[in-house]
Amino acid sequence: MSSRHVLTIDGPAASGKSSTAQWVARTLGWRHVDSGSVYRAATFARQQSPGTPATWTEPSVLSAAAGIGLTPVDGSFVPTLAGTPLGDEIRNLVVTAEVSRVAQMSGVRQWVNRVVQQAAEGHDVVVDGRDMGTVVFPDASLKIWLVADPWERARRRLQQRLGRGPSDEEIAAETDELVQRDAKDATQTVQARDAVLIDTTYLTQPEQVERIAALARSVASKR
Ligand code: CDP
């Protein structure tokens, strides 16, 4: 049996999975793989080819996604398209609106799962997404299910995006979008039965990172 450690962090949109996963990985000296960034990169790659989103078929997404790779950067991975690193463009409005539909294509899910497993291969890793603890790493040593109140998730996401405290109107609009995306993602967002639930609504980020890192250390020391 392999002695490597896999920590999965799953949960709804904007629950802080990726930033927490990255920070926990750094604290532990493990690798971090963000599966959502691969779904976003595939959607972005398809957006660069001709045709409106209504014409996006699974074969056309997979063909566009063939140009995607993952490059290791600072213990994490950055998606690349034709060798060029992708940054904030994978968070553009069209990608965010269409990624849930792209992520429902079974061939795309199989492809992302392979990419994520290859990046994680042979390393102690923290992986985050929607189904890491159920479908992709069902034998993970520790599974976290990260949730937070939708209003608080929307406030944090806007603070991160705008770099300032958002107004109540802005938070209300963002909350609607998050709740709609959660509904679209419902089938692929699955809480593992053996996951530890952490509600971060009233936690600071350092508190949630320390809580998860402490659980991971405790599990790792017992194996
Ligand atoms: O950060 P946020 O939760 O807003 O989203 P993300 O992690 O960047 O993921 C973007 C989208 O990818 C989600 O809305 C899902 O549609 C899809 N996704 C998925 O289906 N399965 C995963 N394991 C990760 C992401």
Structure description:
By secondary structure, the chain is of the alpha/beta class. The chain has 2 domains: 1-15 and 140-218, P-loop containing nucleotide triphosphate hydrolases (Rossmann fold, 3-Layer(aba) Sandwich), CATH 3.40.50.300; 31-123, P-loop containing nucleotide triphosphate hydrolases (Rossmann fold). Helix content is 49%, strand content 17%. It contains 9 helices and 8 strands. The strands form 2 sheets. A 5-stranded parallel sheet has the order 2-6-1-7-8, sandwiched between helices. A 3-stranded antiparallel sheet has the order 3-4-5, covered by helices on one side. A hairpin with a 2-residue loop joins strand 4 and strand 5. The termini are close together. Cytidine-5'-diphosphate binds at residues 13-14, 18, 35-36, 39-40, 99-100, 103, 129-132, 181, 185, 188.
- Helix/strand-derived category reads alpha/beta
Q: What shape does the CA trace take?
A: globular
Oligomer: single chain
Q: CATH superfamily membership of the largest domain, which one?
A: P-loop containing nucleotide triphosphate hydrolases
Tell me the name of the CATH class of the largest domain. Alpha Beta
Question: Would you kindly provide a brief summary of this structure?
Answer:
The chain is α/β, with parallel strands linked by helices. The protein contains nine helices and eight strands. A five-stranded parallel sheet has the order 2-6-1-7-8, with helices on both faces. Strands 3-4-5 form a three-stranded antiparallel sheet, covered by helices on one side.
Which characteristics define this entry?
about 220 residues; alpha/beta; Rossmann fold; 2 domains; binds cytidine-5'-diphosphate
